Amino acid sequence: MNIGVFEHSPAFEKIAAQLRLRILQSGFGSMDSRWTTPEVTIPASSLIFLTAGEACYQFAQHNVQLRPGRAYLMPKHARVAKVCTAEFTALYFNFCLEIYPTRDLFDGLGHCLEMSFPPVEVDDLLVLFRRGTLSATARLEARLLTLLAGLIDGCAVDLMVNAAHGEKFRGVFNVIGARAGFSLTPQLVARELSVAERSLTAAFRRYMGVTLREYILREVISRAMERLAATSDKVRDIATDLAFADEYYFSRFFKKRTGLSPLEYRRSFSGGR
User: Fold this and answer.
1) DSSP β-bridge partners for residue 25
2) For the whole model, what pTM was predicted?
């Protein structure tokens, strides 16, 4: 994958070819107060472009006002509250710029990125989005990659660290990507990779800043969130697929982690992203 900003960074240039953009969910429409949620963990990186009205992302230390004429990127696993006091209209894309399975380049960045994006350019994206042909989709993805390159340029140091850690634990991410579920443990990951569990978990915590078990559980929650937001799958089917003993235990686990029940989380997406 050729992203221009990587030409200026040997570290990024090394991984550019293995980056893969996956659009998980997209839409265009009017949002209302149903878009408002208490603080939640974002399951996938998200780009949003307002065409009318205003909204707000609220972080612990600051707020980000969303207005037309700018592009906003919310990274995967950021903690944020969303506020809409009046109706607004927006085009949005939930996506993963994947380094390795489960590892988004923006994962863990923790704050909103933004840049100027004139309304006429949003109109161009809308034309491609509505056309929906294979050619239009390819052109749309190319335009989004160009935008992402501009956002990357503003936080290259942090993302270089993220990419380096992704390389170090490539095998771990591959195992989690293939087998993520509540029953997956650090012991099973270590066995799959034929390494000592103690050494693996110590190194993972040192470099990633989180335990391997916690990372697995975050990925389980992210997968549950993606399916609740983007599909009409039944909660019990999601629970089964993610290796929970039953729907009740999954729902308790989900609410403890997110502050919302699975159905409450799904309803928060009924007005769009």
Assistant:
1) 94
2) 0.77
